[in-house]
Amino acid sequence: xxxxxxxxxxxxxxxxxxxxxxxxxxxxxxxxxxxxxxxxxxxxxxxxxxxxxxxxxxxxxxxxxxxxxxxxxxxxxxxxxxxxxxxxxxxxxxxxxxxxxxxxxxxxxxxxxxxxxxxxxxxxxxxxxxxxxxxxxxxxxxxxxxxxxxxxxxxxxxxxxxxxxxxxxxxxxx
Length: 174
What we know:
Elements: E1 2-11, E2 15-19, H1 27-30, E3 40-44, E4 47-51, E5 57-65, E6 78-84, E7 92-95, E8 101-103, E9 111-118, H2 120-126, E10 139-146, E11 153-156, H3 160-170
Parallel strand pairs: 5-10
Antiparallel strand pairs: 1-5, 2-4, 2-7, 3-4, 6-9, 6-11, 7-8, 9-10
């Protein structure tokens, strides 16, 4: 396992992206075809839209690259999986509007992505975190490993914020 990103990542509009070319994806397009799987939108080629509870500010975030499917850690409150295939070898985790970015070093091949979250409802309740305030309790983990494509799956959902996004992904309006 290789840690690609670890620390505080700033989110705007409760969003951060994984992109391998082009601009950020549209919220509605990101969840197209995911049948009720919110939080991590993989409906736009080469892009993932990752949603957080906190609307604006820094959150704890880790991204990992694995050789194979990692063990499922049930201590996370929200867990989804989606397929992902980068369009180029320049794949980055990007803050909204490209304010900051981290190169992920992914090959152009099929991957499976597991996005896990904890304390999303606390982040949503805080809404905005100023730079001089302590970090909120919501945290996020993005795990990536090579795998053939398979449909998006909701593995665990406990909070209201995640439930809202899963409902949105059931019938997005374009």
